[in-house]
Every structure is written in C-alpha cells, then in structure tokens.
Design goal:
By secondary structure, the protein is of the alpha+beta class. Helices cover 41% and strands 14% of the residues. Helix 2 links the parallel strand 1 (43-48) and strand 2.
Length: 91
C-alpha cells in the first residue's frame, strides 16, 4: 500500500476553496499517475477531522466530473467530543 498525503494550503492566508482545490488537483494527478508511478489503479481517499471534510469535497467534485468511481473506497472520520476516547464523560 502506498499513501499519498497532500500538503494543501491553509487558511487564513489561503481562504476556502484553496484547500479542496489543492486536494482535487492531487486526486486528479493520482488518477493519471498511479498506474505508472505506483503500479496500481486501486485507489481510496480518506481523511480525519478537517481532512474528512476535504476528502468528501474532493469525492463530490470527482463525482461531478464522472471520476468518483475511480476511487474504490473512502475512509472518513469527523472528530467530535463524543468520538474522542481521551475525553472523560464526567468532565
């Protein structure tokens, strides 16, 4: 398995939609290059917290281009206080 991480531009210096634009660019690059560079066309996209929002935004953009089917899976996790095991219920 190969993991590609995107160094996307951050707010406030680069306001929305700079980050999803960068992630979409990376996903499109990966679609073109995965077979040659990594020897696979089996792709997944994912993110944690803000990354989950970006992953979903990219999947929706790819869907609108007719390319979402190229990604066989999506792993999304939005962090909340309830999902944080370090947070005690009695605090």
């Amino acid at each position: 398995m190969v993991v590609v991480s995107v160094d996307y531009r951050l707010a406030p210096e680069h306001p929305w939609p700079a980050a999803p634009d960068d992630c979409e660019t990376a996903a499109l690059w990966l679609l073109e290059q995965a077979g040659t560079r990594f020897g696979t066309t089996r792709l997944a996209i994912g993110g944690f917290s803000a990354g989950a929002t970006l992953a979903m935004a990219v999947l929706l953009r790819l869907r609108d281009r007719g390319l979402a089917d190229a990604f066989g899976g999506a792993a999304l996790h939005v962090r909340s206080e309830r999902s944080d095991p370090r947070r005690s219920a009695d605090r």
